[in-house]
Each structure stands twice: as structure tokens, then as C-alpha cells.
Amino acid sequence: MEVKTSLLDNMIGVGDMVLLEPLSEDSFLENLKNRFDHNEIYTYIGSVVISMNPYRSLPIYTPDKVEEYRNRNFYELSPHVYALADEAYRSLRDQDKDQCILITGESGAGKTEASKLVMSYVAAVCGKGQEVNKVKEQLLQSNPVLEAFGNAKTVRNDNSSRFGKYMDIEFDFKGDPLGGVVSNYLLEKSRVVKQPRGERNFHIFYQLLSGASDDTLKKLKLDRDFSKYNYLSLDSAAVSGLDDAANFRTVRNAMQIVGFMTDEVQSVLELVAAVLKLGNIEFKPESRCNGMDESRVKDKNDLKEMCELLGIEQAVLERAFSYRTVEAKMEKVSTTLNVSQAYYARDALAKNLYSRLFSWLVTRINESIRAGTKARHKVMGVLDIYGFEIFEDNSFEQFIINYCNEKLQQIFIELTLREEQEEYVREGIEWTNIEYFNNAVICDLIENNQNGILAMLDEECLRPGTVTDETFLDKLNTVCAEHQHFESRLSKNSKFLNDHSLPHTCFRIQHYAGKVLYRAEGFVDKNNDLLYRDLSQAMYKANHSLIKQLFPEGSPSKVNLKRPPTAGFQFKASVGTLMRNLQTKNPNYIRCVKPNDKKAAHIFTESLVRHQVHYLGLMENVRVRRAGYAFRQPYEPCLERYKMLCKKTWPHWRGPAREGVEVLMEDLQVPAEEFSYGRSKIFIRNPRTLFFLEERRRQCLQDLATLIQKIYRGWKCRSHFLLLKKSQIVVAAWYRRYAQQKKYQKIKSATTVVQSYTRGWQARKLLRELKYQKRCEEAVTTIAAYWHGTQARRELRQLKEAARNKHAVSVIWAGWQGTKVRREYRKFFRANAGKKIYDFTIQRIMQKYFLGLKSNMPSMSPTDKNWPDRPYLFLDGVHTELRRIFHHWRCKKYRSQFTEEKKAVYEEKLEASELFKDKKALYPSSVSQPFKGDYLEISKNPKYQKLNSSVDEKVLLADVVNKINRANGKGSARLFLLTKKSVVLADHKTGQIKASVPLPELASVSVSSQTDGFFALKLKEGSASAVKGDFLLSSEHLIEIITKLHRIGAKAADREQLNLDISDEFLVQFKQDKVCVKFIQGSPKNGNSASCKRKNNRLLEVSVPTSP
Ligand SMILES: Nc1ncnc2c1ncn2[C@@H]1O[C@H](COP(=O)(O)OP(=O)(O)O)[C@@H](O)[C@H]1O
Ligand SMILES: [Mg+2]
What we know:
By secondary structure, the protein is α+β, with helices and mostly antiparallel strands. Helix content is 49%, strand content 16%. The protein contains 31 helices and 31 strands. The strands form 8 sheets. An 8-stranded mixed β-sheet has the order 23-22-21-20-26-25-24-27, covered by helices on one side. It has a 7-stranded mixed β-sheet with strand order 1-2-16-3-12-6-7, sandwiched between helices. A 4-stranded mixed β-sheet has the order 28-29-31-30, with no helix packed on it. Strand 24 (1002-1007) and strand 25 form a beta hairpin. The longest helix has 169 residues, at 687-855. The two termini are 160 Å apart. It binds adenosine-5'-diphosphate and magnesium ion. Adenosine-5'-diphosphate binds at residues 53-55, 57-58, 105, 107-113, 157, 159-161, 592.
């Protein structure tokens, strides 16, 4: 549903100044400030839009905003330039009314921006399509071109338009754009040659120098450095936020889109370059013979380059700077120019060159954007023109501008009133006389053909003779003195004679927007706008297509003695055309206001705004608008808006809207003089009434809102309550279920506990019973068992008793039977059986004995003394015999293992045993000593080599023995050798043989029966050896020596054996004497060995220690 809104909704201050109560300049400003502070930069005065420059980008120009304002009624939304553009566009398209949008305001107030917003809005909402888009693009792109050449940085605005611009946009019947026409007014050409401090020349100069390629600059003979050019002020050459180089590219691109040819662009740039070069031409004076100074070009280089650029003959131009030709009545008079005149001429040329170039550009753009068809089309004009200018020092330009604004005000009044009047007629309202100030009289003061100021000025300029600004002022003083809006000190009007605020050189005009003081100085000159003919002719001669076009008056074929029209005249004419043009159209006004001089956002300088409000005539505007009825509104929206104020019309009115409004007004008791009913609208005389309605509506809305709120809250609370209730039931149900569940669980578990206790008790009871039963059973069983046991044992006893008795009977019986039998058989048995039983028993015993012996045999070692015991005494003999046989057998077995040598050794041992066993006490100790024989190792030891070799036979025994000296019984060591044939005694040390006794000469050997080693070798009497006597010797190996000697001696002497005497007393034959050797038992003090002592000549006593 589309919501019907109104400008009156959410208003900050009042959106329409017409509704301001009370209306005063202060409340007007207050309202503007209030809205400005809230970013509401637009405010209406009826259908006029006041626009405050915000100096910052606001988010109110988005495509969404365009859509919002599209096709909406003017008062439906908050004030906006889009609302005005939409209104204009729609009445153009739908009502076939040509429109003009008049944008005024001082420099920097936002006029150009507003005009662009209007154009962009129209471009956005009008038809689309390839062709249409191209036209739109061309129209929009004409702006950058014109801005580059016509805008400049001033102290008020970095992009100030230095010309007035009016653009007609042409549409077809559908509202699609077809093309356009641009008109320009009064370019501020003086800027070309001189700029006020802090300002710049036109943008294009800076753009060209910063943005053109090196190549282009070279072609144009330019240098990138701004400081090289006299016409370019340096102090603000670079403007922050303005990228000249980028803008240059934009401009060239725009020119291309608009349809400029490449060579045209080149020509334009050449002209721009030429202007810069022109500024660098300087002059010097040269005295002439007639005493006058004549100017000469100082440095001809710049002149030359400029002439080359424009294809002008240098000499021609040079001359034009030195001479001036005045033609009068077919006569040519040539006068020289002094230096200042030359400079004047130079600057005039530069200004003309540039302004004509600008006009040419406008024409050229028009050629491109002009609508193609001749068909009738609708037109929307956009006028971006300077507003009233009231400076401290106002000159010709301000005069012209203010004149233009007077004319616009004139149109405004005319059109507004006319429209107002037409509306009244249309609506059938009685025309009430509106009182307002009509500025026609001021316009008349300026433009009257007979005595208007402009006419006076022209008259002065054309008048022969000396003409100065003073003469012009004098003239004004005489002609206009009577005029009520003209003030001058020198006029006859005595009123100002003593007004010191009015200098003598000035005049003052009371414009509709305030009084402005003009300084007369320069008026004549500026109006003349003189360019010496020589210069225009020189230009015409240029070999440059564009220059030629720009100076048509230089053509020789057009020699025209008439002066060119003055600036004032031209302007008046173009303003006249413009006014006629505007008068045919429906006007829409945008009044731009500048909030501060600092180009800063958020600052509202009241004095400045008050000044603007003043000279823009805004208060006038409001008054005119309020002259009749302040407010009007069609019946439908009016009824729609206020129907809630009356019960009859609320909520629906069924009848026609007008009747509804009538009922409403009656009901509200609005005084009848406060409003009138038109055909389709209601007209409200006073804003007060409207506000009364609005206030009532606001209250009513509040009540309605309260009602709606009440119902809504009730509904909300109820539905909330119902929801709560529903939820509560659900929650309660769930809770109850939960609680019951819990309770059930509790009961269940309690029951289980009780049950378990009961069951336990029952079980225990049962158990007790069962246990008792069991015990009873067990007791019974035990008793029964015991009883049975007793029974059984008693029975067993009886049985045993019976059995014993029975056995005793049978034993007694058997004994008696046996006795009886034995008694009967005794006599048979004794006769035979006794011997057989004996044999058998003996046999059996023997068998048992042999088998037992067999399994109990001792070991095979001959030294083993073990033998099993004899079991029966009667086996004694057999047992000893068996032992002996077994011993022999095992000795034999043992012997059979011996080698020959060992056998010999044992044979010797055996012999020793036969000889000495139980005869000599020494013997047992020798049994364990092996018979080694050669104790000296005679064959191996080199010491005995000689001895060995001197003995023929093999040595069987070699030992050291002691030879007992018969004199003292002491022994001396001798080597004792025994061979098969002899016994040899040798010196112990030298080995020399002392005695050698052949064995056959040996008679016998004597030894004692004791443990000593003494032995005597007795020789056969009469033998060779016997001469020296017997030998008494002692040796540790006595048994061995004697045994060996015994064996060998026997063999050698072929006798049975050698005699061996074993006796403790024997005789030994020493040479002649016989000495008795006696062996006695020695005391232990004599040591372990036996010792020999000579007792007397016939006795040697040997004491032998007692063996332990
Ligand atoms: N509606 C706007 N929104 C934002 N900035 C604006 C607006 N109108 C003007 N301006 C700012 O103010 C400057 C001057 O505006 P401009 O239209 O060139 O002034 P005028 O043409 O009146 O001399 C602009 O360059 C821009 O920065
Ligand atoms: Mg501008």
C-alpha cells in the first residue's frame, strides 16, 4: 500500500517558508539555520526551492532518492531539488508546458551543482534507448567543456562559472530528449589578462600545461612551467582537490563525445596557446622626431611564435601594436601608439580572442547538440546565472548582472502573479488584490531607451569629443536625478547632498533587493570594449581557419565605419531575448544560498545568509506568494489528510471529496474568511489555519495512535496471555506426569522394600523350620545309627564268639587228630625219611651258598682283602679254599697284563722278598720303592762318560755308596757300579776306578737284620781281589743292591746262588785283620741314621736307631 505522505510530516522548522509564522527576516533565518543544522539544505517558498550549499557530499542524490521523488507530488515529500525537477519534467511531458528552471545565487552558492543535479535527474527519469542515451550523454558532456573554458578558481569558489549560462533542453512528445541549445552571457573576459589575488585564470590554461603530452606542448610551442606566462597568476596555480591533468583528459574526452573534430580541437588549443604567448609580448618606448613616444615590441621571439601558431604575418601584427588607423569620412589617419596604449591593445586582443573563442565553442557545441528534427518539441530551459552582486566596490559588471537579476525578478513577479491569477480564475476564486513591490520601475531606470542608464552610457560612448566616466556620471545626474531609485551626491536631489556614504564618483541604485553603490570609473571603457581595427584586420589576415572566423569584422570587404555595438547594448539585447524566451515558459526557481565564506561544511554565518536572503529578495518572494492565499491543496489529499478530525468523515467519506472537506471545515468551525473553496482545491488564507489543522491532526493522530496502541497492546497482551495459558497447561500436564511418575517410582520402590522384608522374614521362618526338621531328622538318624550300631556290635560279638568257639573246636580237633595220626605213623617215618630230608636240606643250603657267593664276589684288585662271611660253620674249609683260589686266579689275571720289563722288575722284587722278607727289618720300607738300577744316569751324564767307557759291560746298577773306613768307622763316598761280570768302586769325584771285583771272586754278602743299610762284600780267599780285603759299605738302596748282586752273582759264577748272611754280628777281613762288626740297638739321640764306631781293633760297632 502506498503511504500518502506530506511535506508537513516530520518537518524540521517549516519546509515551506510560506507557512512561517510570524513572518520576519529573523524567523526566516532561524528556520533556514535550523534546517541547515539538520542537513535539510532545501526549503520551499511555495514552488521556489531555496538551496543551501552544504559544502560536503550528502547521501541525498542516490539512485534510490531519484526513484523516491519520481512521479510524486511536489508537496508530498520533504523539499528537494529533485522534487522541483520532477514537477517541471512532468508538467512538460504531461501538460505540454515548456519549462524553465531559473537558478540564481551568488558565486559559490551551488548554482552550477544545482543545474547539474536537475539535468542528471531529468536524464535519469526520461526515456531510454541508444539514440536517447547518446543525446543525453552529449548534453551532459557539454558541461565539462564549458566549465574548462568558462570556469576559474576564485576566492569564493574553486570552480566558479565566469559566464552566465542558459541551456534549453528539447524533448519530444514522449518526454525523450532530442537535443539542446546553450546560450552564454557575459563571460568575465577581464580575467584572461589579470586575476585578483588568490584567484586563477580560466581552468583550460592550467589544464593544457599540466595535462597535454610533451609532443602536443612542443607543437603548441609551449612550456609546462606556469611561471613562464605573464597571464597566469602564480599564487594559486595549483588548487587542492583539483587535478588539472586529469581534467584535461576529461575535457578532451568530452569534446570528442560532443562531436569536436580533431583539427578543431587542435585549433582551439592553438588559440589558447596564442593567448598565453600574447601575454608574454612586451613593449618598450621609442622616441620619435615629433617628440612623441612610440612603442616597439621588446623581445620578438614570443611574437614570432604566436604568429607562427596562428599563421599571421609577423610584420602585420607588429605594426598593429604600434599604429592605429582611424578612418573618418573616407579618410584614413594613422596614429602611433605609446607603450601603455600598446599594452592596452595587447590585452584587448587577448580578451577578445578568448571571449570570441568561448562564444565559438558555445556555437560549436550547439551545432552538435541541436535537435535534428524540425518537429515541434517541448523545451526545458536551465538558467545558471549569477545572482545579485553587492560588493564594496561595484563596477560595470555588477551593474549589468544586477540589471539581469532585476529582469529576472520582473519575470518572477509577472509569472508568479500571472500564475496565481490564472489559478484563481481556474479555480473560480474571487481575485483579491495582491499588494507587492513591482520592480518594473527599476528596470525602466536602467533600460529605458530614452533616459535609461544604459542608453545614457551608450550615448556617452558614441559621442564625439572627450568622453570620460565623469561626463557619464554628470549626464546621469542630470537625466536620472528625479528617479526615486537613483541616488547621487551630485544630483539635483538635495536629499543626498550630505550623504557621506555616497562618494562623488559614484551613483547608487535602489534595487529591489537592496541599495547598490556603483563606481562610475571604467564604465565607459568597459562598455566600449574597444578592439583597434588594425588588430582585428591583422587577425582576419591570419592563415588559420578558426581565427578568421572569430574576427569577421576585420574583413576588408566589410569595411564598416559604424562602431560595433557596445557591451551594454549587447547585453541588454541578449537579456531581452532571454526574457522573452523565459516569458513563454513556466518558471521554476532555485535560489542558492551560501552558508559561509570559508567553503566549509556545518558553518552558518548568519550575517552572510541574511545578506543573501536580502538581495535574492527571498522575503519578497514569500510575501508575493502569501499575498493571496498562503496554502492550497486539492480536495482529495486534503480530505485524506484531515478526515480524522471529524466523526462524519472518519474513517470513510462516501461522497465527493469537496463535500467531505466542506463538512470537515464546518465541523472544525474554521472561520469562513480563512479559506475559500476552489473548483478542485481548497485555498487557505493564513498559515495559522493550516497549522491549526495540522495541530489538530497531530493530536488526533496521537489519540489514534494511542487507540491503535491500546488495541494492539490489548491484543498483544491477550495473545501473549493465551499463549502463556496454553503453555501453562502443557507445562502443568508435563509436570503432573513427571510428579506422578516420581510418586509411582517411590511407591514401587517402597513396595519392593516391604516385599523384600516380608519375603526375607518368611524365608527365614521357613529356613528355621527346615533347619529344625533337619536337626530332628539328623538326631533320629544318629539315634537310629547308634542303636543299629549297638545292635550290630552285639550281634558281631555273638558271631565272633561263635566263630572263636568254632575255631577252637576245630584246632582242638585237628591237634587231637594230628596227635592221633603222628602217634600212628611215627614208626614208619623214622626209618626212611630222615636221611632224605637231611640230604635235601644240605643240597639246598649249598646251592644257596654258591649263589650268594657269586653275587657277593670282591673286586679284581690283588690287594683287596675283602671276602664274604662264612654262613655255616660246616663250610669253613671250603670257604677259605675258595678264597685262596680266587686270590690266585686274580693275581694271575693281574700278572698276565705285565710287559717283560715290568715282569723283570717284579721278579727282582719277588727275589728281594724271598731274600729279606721277615729277615731284615729294612725290607718293608723297600717294598714301595721301585728298583731303578742306574741312579747316576751314567750313560747320559757326561761326568761319568769316562767311567762308563772304561767299564766293558752294561751297567746294571750305579749308585753312590759309603765305604766304611776300618780305622775310624767313618764312611767315604764311592761310586758303586754293578755289571753282569763285576762290581766296580770308583772315586766319587773323579770317577776313577778304585776297585773292580769280578763276580766270581765274590764269596758272600753279610747284612744285619736291622733297618740299617750296611753290608759287607766278602771275597773268596786267595782270589786276586782278596788282597785288599773285604768291603764294608753302606747304601740307601741296600735291598736292591743285594737282590741284584744275588741274581747276577749266581749267574756269573755258575753257582746256585750267592751266599747271603743275615746276622747282627759278622766278621770282615780287612787286609790281614779280621774285624767284627756288631749291630746294636741305638738310642734315639744318635739320630735317624745308623752310625759306626770303632771300639777296638777287633770291633766295629754299628748303632741302629730303633725303628719307630
Ligand atoms: N548540493 C551540493 N552538495 C554538495 N556540495 C555542493 C552542493 N552544491 C554546491 N556544492 C559545493 O560548492 C561548490 C560551489 O558550487 P557551484 O555550483 O560551483 O557554485 P556556483 O555555481 O553557484 O558558483 C561546489 O564545487 C561544491 O563543492
Ligand atoms: Mg557556477
